[in-house]
Amino acid sequence: LSILLSLLVPAHTTRSPDCGGILTPSGLRYRKSRPTPPTPAAGRGRKSVLRQDLMAPPAPEPSPISPSSKNQITSVKVDKFSLTLIPDTGMRLSIEVDLGITSAPSTTKEMRLSILADLHVEMNPEGNLELVTFDCKPTLEEVQSTEEMDRSAPHKSSGSDVDKQINVEKICLEVSKLLLFPNERLMSLAAPFPITPSCQVQYQPLASPMYSEQGIIISLQTTFQVAGTVIPLPVSPVPFSMPEPASSSPSHLILAFSEHFYTSLFSALEESGALNVSLLSSLTTATLAERITQMGSLFQEDLPVVLQAVTRSSPHVVLEEDKAIVKLFLTAQIGAGASLFQSFLSVNVDVTARLHLSVADTRMIISVAAIEDIELSLATSDVGPVLAALLEELFLPTIREEVPAQINVVLRQGVFLPHIASFTYTDVNITIHKDYVLIPCNLQLEARTG
C-alpha cells in the first residue's frame, strides 16, 4: 500500500496550478482604440466576417435569411456587437444587424436581425481552451417597407412571415464561424516560449475557466523543458489558488504568480546550467602568494585567479510584502589557468539576493537588484579559520559584483508571460505579496500590416 501511495501522491500533486489570470469585464469589452483597415495578413474583423458571410451568394447552401430565391440582401450594417460576462455561467454575445432585403426591383425591406448567443470556454481533448456556443437565438423583425407604389406607412410582417425568413441553423453557423479566429489565438496560450537557448517555459490550462463577478478565472500549471525534455520540479508545499480582487478592477487582466512558480523557474535555470558562473578575480597567483605563502609552490608563473561556481542544490525564492528574494547555493572552485584550470581550494557560497520585477510587452523581466547577504564556508575542513577569513576578504568583492552581473545576462531576455498571439500588455502595475505576485495590466491589440 505504501508503494502504491508513493506512486499516486506525486501524480496528484503535480496537477496543481502555480499561476493564473482573471480576464475582467473591462478586458472582455476591450476593443482596439484605433482600428486599421483589415489586410490579408491581419484577417477580417468580427463585424466584417458577419457582414460578408450574410452577403455571400446563397448557392450552393441556402442563405441564412432567404424567404425565396427572388430575395436578395443588398446591405448589411452591424449596429451592435458586444460580449458580456454572466457570473457562474459564461458569456453572452449580442449582435444587432440592420439588413436591406430586396424582393423585387420596386420593393426594399429594412429588417433588424438580433442574435443572442451564450458562450463558454471548454477544454478540448488536446488540452487547449476553446470558445464554444451552447445556445443561439436569432430573431428577425421588419422595420420598414418601401415600394415605388404609394406606401406612406411602415409595414409590419406577421410573425409567421418573419419566421419563414430565418434559417436558424444557418444563422447560428455563421456565429460559430466568428469563433474560429479567437480559438486559433487561444491555442497559442499553451505554446512553449524560450527563456534561454536550451530552456523553455509552457503554461498549460488545468481545467475550464470559472466565471465570477470579477471576471473569467483561468488556472495554469507551468512546465519547463531543458534541451527538449520536461524536467521534474519541486512540489509546491502549499496549493495555489488564483486570488480574486476584493472589488471590480479597472484593469483588463490580472495575472498572478505563486512563490512556487519563481522557485521552479530558477530550478529550471539551474538544471540547464545557466546559473553556473565563471568569475575572474582581480587577483593573480603572485599577489595571492603574498598573503598565502603556500601559493608560491603551486604555480611557477603568475596566472589570473578564477572562481568557477556551480550550483550544489536547487535555488529557492521567497516572496514577502513588497519584496522578492532568491537564495542561491553555489560551490566555487578557486584556481588558476585558462586552458588547463587547476583548482587549489573549494568554497561554498550561499547568496541571498533581492529581485526586481518589471514587464515589457509580454515578458516579465527579472533581475538581481542587490545582494543582501553572502556566506562563504570552506568545503574542505583542513583549512584554519585564519585562511577562511582571508579568503572572504579577498574574494567577497568579486562574488558580490560578478554573480548578479552574470545572472542578469542570463535573465535579460525576460520570461514570457501567459498570453495569446497579437496581444501585448500595457499599464502594468506589479505588486509583491506574501507567497504570490499580482500583475494587473491592460490589453493592447497589435496592428498587423503584413
UniProtKB/TrEMBL annotation:
Q: Which residue ranges run through the membrane?
A: none
Its taxonomic placement starts with: Eukaryota, Metazoa, Chordata, Craniata, Vertebrata
Q: In what residue span(s) does the Lipid-binding serum glycoprotein C-terminal domain sit?
A: 247-441
What highest taxon heads this organism's lineage? Answer: Eukaryota
According to the record, the residues making up region (Disordered) are 18-47
Q: State one molecular function term (GO).
A: lipid binding
Name listed for the protein in its UniProt record: TENP protein
